[in-house]
Specification:
1892 residues; alpha+beta; six-stranded antiparallel sheet
Length: 1892
Amino acid sequence: MAAAAAAAAVGGQQPSQPELPAPGLALDKAATAAHLKAALSRPDNRAGAEELQALLERVLSAERPLAAAAGGEDAAAAGGGGGPGAAEEEALEWCKCLLAGGGGYDEFCAAVRAYDPAALCGLVWTANFVAYRCRTCGISPCMSLCAECFHQGDHTGHDFNMFRSQAGGACDCGDSNVMRESGFCKRHQIKSSSNIPCVPKDLLMMSEFVLPRFIFCLIQYLREGYNEPADGPSEKDLNKVLQLLEPQISFLEDLTKMGGAMRSVLTQVLTNQQNYKDLTSGLGENACVKKSHEKYLIALKSSGLTYPEDKLVYGVQEPSAGTSSLAVQGFVGATGTLGQVDSSDEDDQDGSQGLGKRKRVKLSSGTKDQSIMDVLKHKSFLEELLFWTIKYEFPQKMVTFLLNMLPDQEYKVAFTKTFVQHYAFIMKTLKKSHESDTMSNRIVHISVQLFSNEELARQVTEECQLLDIMVTVLLYMMESCLIKSELQDEENSLHVVVNCGEALLKNNTYWPLVSDFINILSHQSVAKRFLEDHGLLVTWMNFVSFFQGMNLNKRELNEHVEFESQTYYAAFAAELEACAQPMWGLLSHCKVRETQEYTRNVVRYCLEALQDWFDAINFVDEPAPNQVTFHLPLHRYYAMFLSKAVKCQELDLDSVLPDQEMLMKLMIHPLQIQASLAEIHSNMWVRNGLQIKGQAMTYVQSHFCNSMIDPDIYLLQVCASRLDPDYFISSVFERFKVVDLLTMASQHQNTVLDAEHERSMLEGALTFLVILLSLRLHLGMSDDEILRAEMVAQLCMNDRTHSSLLDLIPENPNPKSGIIPGSYSFESVLSAVADFKAPVFEPGGSMQQGMYTPKAEVWDQEFDPVMVILRTVYRRDVQSAMDRYTAFLKQSGKFPGNPWPPYKKRTSLHPSYKGLMRLLHCKTLHIVLFTLLYKILMDHQNLSEHVLCMVLYLIELGLENSAEEESDEEASVGGPERCHDSWFPGSNLVSNMRHFINYVRVRVPETAPEVKRDSPASTSSDNLGSLQNSGTAQVFSLVAERRKKFQEIINRSSSEANQVVRPKTSSKWSAPGSAPQLTTAILEIKESILSLLIKLHHKLSGKQNSYYPPWLDDIEILIQPEIPKYSHGDGITAVERILLKAASQSRMNKRIIEEICRKVTPPVPPKKVTAAEKKTLDKEERRQKARERQQKLLAEFASRQKSFMETAMDVDSPENDIPMEITTAEPQVSEAVYDCVICGQSGPSSEDRPAGLVVLLQASSVLGQCRDNVEPKKLPISEEEQIYPWDTCAAVHDVRLSLLQRYFKDSSCLLAVSIGWEGGVYVQTCGHTLHIDCHKSYMESLRNDQVLQGFSVDKGEFTCPLCRQFANSVLPCYPGSNVENNPWQRPSNKSIQDLIKEVEELQGRPGAFPVSISSETNLSKEMESVMKDIKNTTQKKYRDYSKTPGSPDNDFLFMYSVARTNLELELIHRGGNLCSGGASTAGKRSCLNQLFHVLALHMRLYSIDSEYNPWRKLTQLEEMNPQLGYEEQQPEVPILYHDVTSLLLIQVLMMPQPLRKDHFTCIVKVLFTLLYTQALAALSVKCSEEDRSAWKHAGALKKSTCDAEKSYEVLLSFVISELFKGKLYHEEGTQECAMVNPIAWSPESMEKCLQDFCLPFLRITSLLQHHLFGEDLPSCQEEEEFSVLASCLGLLPTFYQTEHPFISASCLDWPVPAFDIITQWCFEIKSFTERHAEQGKALLIQESKWKLPHLLQLPENYNTIFQYYHRKTCSVCTKVPKDPAVCLVCGTFVCLKGLCCKQQSYCECVLHSQNCGAGTGIFLLINASVIIIIRGHRFCLWGSVYLDAHGEEDRDLRRGKPLYICKERYKVLEQQWISHTFDHINKRWGPHYNGL
């Protein structure tokens, strides 16, 4: 049927071979296939071929399915197919049959696989796959391996990491182009091509015939399905088509996986041009093919592409390709063909026509652009397949298929060429795509496989113009988002820049392109072609200039900016990725002399581009004010190539430098950035919002600094070394706007700067000069020195982890540069400069990571504040470095005071840059330094210590680098009269230092003090006239000076054009001078730099004449000045150092210093300065005193806080804890006194106003996790290992209870055991008390508090008002006497019989209780409410064990079990025994006493019927009636099956409180007799038949002795004989019991067995006694624990001597004759065991030796967990979870956040935490290596217990380094789990809303 329909559909043609059977059955298909194969195998196979063609025509018709899917007009024809999917399946079945040629398809696959020469792995993966990268084995940085190949290769000791693939990738194992062969895995090491046999011809013969048709069919589908709607096809339509094609593409993918043989057939098919032409030309008469060809042409055309030939077939008239008038998308053509631009691109068009024209011109400047962008011609299936892959936006399946073919070499080359051919088209599609992220990832997934291979990249570069294509496409992409630049001259600027707000930049859409470009530039052969091709370089510089000056910031002066744009990050990312990274790539190939030519090319075109840029923005010499752009990529290209040229290529620097005028222009913008940085840090840009700070930080941040600030500073250093130093220095001060500040006058006016910004701007200017002069990054340091300096700077700021260091040290952004982080040099430098501090654990503290901290000698010799300032993103880091430095000096005793940043000698300059030091020897700088020193000495406002520090630093730098020698300097000293022309005689600092300046003329405001004072002097101005006239003007003409220099240069170069603009710019600067209120005054100075320094020394040290030249004592100092490379100290030491250097460099200086020191100089203007100095001194003193006071207060506060924190918070250290307030009462007071932490009053707790303890109630299943094995279970890490929870304490108790409930009366069962092993309620307190009414108002205030808390007030949660510990209830304190001085404690000498009677009477009295329950008091209300809280803490399933729900027995059982749970947990916290004795932490802040009162009060509401009271059975003999009518109803639980500890709690809680001590002891004695009997019975069941009879007889003989009741032998024999009467031992099972214990029983071992049975009871009882009566627990050795506890409980007579071996039986004190009561107890069992011997025996053996609970034991290496669990399927939903997690308590594997496993709105982790831990869950997140804790409705991230080799966590496995278990951390986690302190120790909790 289907076949007939198919036949009808094929263009109405009947098949020409009607004799073929209708292919209905698989059998027929196989037969047909076999027949065809035979036909084709004949030598003359034409007939067979035709037959096959016809069959394929029929089977693979492309009409049906899509018509059906699209509901088109042909849908009717498809009726036969039975649904759209059926036909495809049919077709696939046919194909499989035909390929196999009649055999089975699976056998065929296997046969083909046998011929696979598997030399390459080539496994393709998609995003999120976990792969490995080994840098040791990789040749290309992109190399990656699948997990299997990685683990099968040997990478021990290599630098590898695991990573999650972002875009997908493929395994490179076996590809020696990408990785070294040593890293290949075992499978791909063998070059196996030799021994693989040749493929037999007939095996793949059918494939060669069938596959072309199949692929053509696929292409037809793709053509059919693609409709070009107006606005680009919608996602939905495309996905629909793709879903239909899923099976076909998967089929192709399976074919590729058959190995090399099949791949080569596919390659033939895909690349064969003849096949393609025959099938697709559309020239045949087949209408279907024709139609599909039309669709193909339409798709081509609508993509803006032309199809060069076949123009006229369909009458589509088109001009020829070269002059295609189809305008390139996105450009408004100047040719006026607007109509033809795609309508979808209107948003790309720029409104202004003029701009559009300019863009247009730009693009067509190259000759080949149009054709690259517009023309596509497809010659093979592969090419058209790729075309459709692009059209459909890279569907994952297609990508995988195309990549799976890559191991075939021939295919790889063909595919790469095809990819390059379509490159422009790919990028066009990407730009328009809605899902550009996904698409970019898929593109890179492909391109990275192709371009990482150097050979291939070279081939396509040569044959396909790859570089031209890439650069053109990049240009094309960026041109769509250009805007006019507003830098400098807004109106007339011709420069265009990219607009960072465009989606293209904001979403980083360009990155696939750029990443490919960087990838191919990393190959030397390709990069060389690029650097040799001048046309390309021009185009590239053109491209780079689009980024020059982007993201311009204009300073807001009035309003705060309304909208803070965040586009700045896009700009930084764009410059880094599109400009800097290609630059680093090119630089890496310019390392040797031979490559000089390349550098010259780049520099030449870079300068041309810069010149064009300056012209375009109309730049002359003044930058526009209040603008800054951080983006100058052209400057940075130029700078980096210069640096490389000098450093590696031995080029002469001057040969690549431009003229002076160009240098002046070059320096302006980088200098503008440095000044703007200072402005931003001085808060002058606050109105621009936070983003401007963000830019300033990003500019210096570690990933950007070496592509941004470093080249900028280097360029400025180059300019400074070549320009006139006076010009440069004055430019700097002018740019920083502090020219007006540099005056001798005490007051001045600054026209460009507010007063509050002056100081920080001056600091900025001086700091910049210091950096400029001392930084050597590009001026002669080697790579290793740079690395070391960077590392020292980072470590000095803070201790760092290894990974943060890697991140902070600016690596060369190009991966091939050699300094790869983690490389050998990194580790060796690190170990040289830093010490490793292993992670430490403070209990309850935060988890520390392993840190590196600088070695002492680094602080001592290498700490470099200049480098630190350059590299700090946050200013506080500089302070942090200084503080750490200060601390080091104090600690090592090198310097006690507050040190200044140390002066460090620099490495020598490279000869090319020697000119830089001329800056230090120019008059302008000296005038500035002199002025500043003078101002500091005179205490002018606005000058800080920082300024002084920088001034001295500059002077010292100048002395270090003084060029001229002493001799010519001496000659020039003719006295000051010779040089009237300026302040200083020469330009050498050494000689200028001693030059005295007498008078200075200044311009001051009329209000200044100088004016009045100097008015008489002006009359005598003639006698000093000539001295200052020119000299004094000097400093204030800084600007004029700069103008003059610039003018000279301009005139030298004959640029008239600039002359014209000159007046306009200078007029701006005339303003300051023309301010009318300035007047001229003349100051008398009479100082030199030396004299100022000496006075400064006096000032700093605070005493007159403090400086004494050291060489007067020891002349040697001058001859060999021992000036260390590095010196610590403060300002005084700095001044002394400078004076010493000055003296040692010049004899004159030495003489003058001595002279100055001889004249004890009074301070200069005596009146003024003394007052001021006095004032400042007073001020300083007052400040100092205030500071000391403050320090003292702070210290005191800190110590108080510390002691408080210790008492309140410390969870784990008992020593420093003060006991809780309850126990602090004086002995004579009988009532306990409580302090309320809210109202602060203290007093007793009364019924009307009860006080309560702050408690946290939580359900706990920790006890249930105890096992009888010391070894913790291991986390399963393979399918074989499983964890079964049968042996846990909870499981054993469950089994026991259900067994009892099967055979005995329910109400009695519920008294025979305890529950709460799972979901028991644990109560803990911080020990603070509060009034309950205070608490209520506190809760009310929390409820109204709007602040988001980490806890839920509605659930009653709060934090203790005093210590902030988490809590959720208040436990009322029972009014009455204090524990310590209890009148009830006095021992009475009543006999045990009397006491037993009293106990019974007291228990029988209901409500005999000081608080009568009938009257509702506040106290009883609170007791009830807290009981409700306790019940609600745990889930219902953990409270209800009775068969009749809601029975009172249930509550009864629950209440005494709460007591049991708390005692058992305390026992565990003490380590499982009481050997340590004393009151542990838990004891001190225990609330058990209060808890007992609450429980007892409620227990007594349910009085037990006296007949049922077990007390009777224990203390009285009853007449035994064997026929008690047991048959009608279930019997009660025999007393021997009761849990003795539960009985104890029931008895104690049934007594009126407070309990008397002798009653307590009486109860314990009675219960001990029962316990002992149980122990004997259990022992008798455990041993063998022979042992039993032996004991029975041995004991019977001694029965008559006097202390028979205290001899275990007698008692044991009696128990055995009594139990013998039941059928207990008559059992075929006895043999196996015997085998359990093959050891011979000695008296010692029996004694040990009995003691072990009784010990848990004694421990709990002792704890209970300790809490009820406040007695301390004795400490003891483990072996004597039993006897010590027994005597402590009063079981042992006090006169008992312990010489002979201790016998437990001596503790027995029988209330009634022993043998009678034992007989009575055994009788109860007898009747039961007669029927159920097996169960009877099981119930007798109570397992009581539980060991401490543990979390699962984890493997050493995290990888073992990860590899097993990250691919494991979840047992519930059978999928591989996205976020797998595993429970560390029980090992259950769960889906975190998985909606798949959600039940009633609870996700799986939350659900599991309730089932496994009663609300507490500890999960290890497999993909993140961290542990999360779920506690009730909150969760927190706990941290990781796996650390790498450097002691660091690796959250989310981002770094992917091997991780190892940290045992200490795991112990801390386990400790917190056991002690239930998660809530107190972890601080960051949040609600999980059941979504985990």
